[in-house]
Specification:
Length: 129
């Protein structure tokens, strides 16, 4: 009986290592955001940033990057990108919070459009002094 238990433990360990193989492919997906915090007090010499947050569907999602597109000098579009690994995942909701750098912006009122992966978006405004 002792040998069977040890054999079962070895088989489980081997199975977990096979599924945890880092050579499994990953794909990038655009993810939705729950909200964004836009701090104040920036001027035209500041490196401007915002803080975004949301919830990943499961443990296979990892924050990858934010794609910032400057439509013009005062309108900016932000898309959040995650990498999703293929394989076994822990099936729990995973909250995240990340800082997104926008760079130096001109003085004035800016509109930030946070685009979700399903075509919806929300907007925030920011004033640069």
């Amino acid at each position: 009986m002792k040998h069977q238990t040890i054999l079962a433990i070895i088989l489980v360990f081997f199975s977990v290592n096979v599924f945890a193989d880092s050579s499994l492919p990953e794909k990038e997906v655009q993810i939705g955001l729950s909200g964004a915090y836009v701090p104040g007090g920036f001027d035209s010499a500041s490196d401007v940033y915002v803080i975004v947050n949301g919830i990943f569907q499961n443990g296979c999602y990892k924050w990858k990057r934010a794609d910032v597109e400057n439509k013009d000098a005062f309108n900016h579009s932000i898309k959040s990108i995650a990498s999703v690994s293929q394989g076994m995942c822990i099936m729990v909701l995973m909250p995240f919070q990340k800082e997104v750098h926008l760079g130096k912006l001109a003085s004035g009122k800016h509109t930030l459009r946070f685009e979700n992966g399903d075509g919806t978006y929300f907007e925030k405004s920011m004033t640069i002094e």
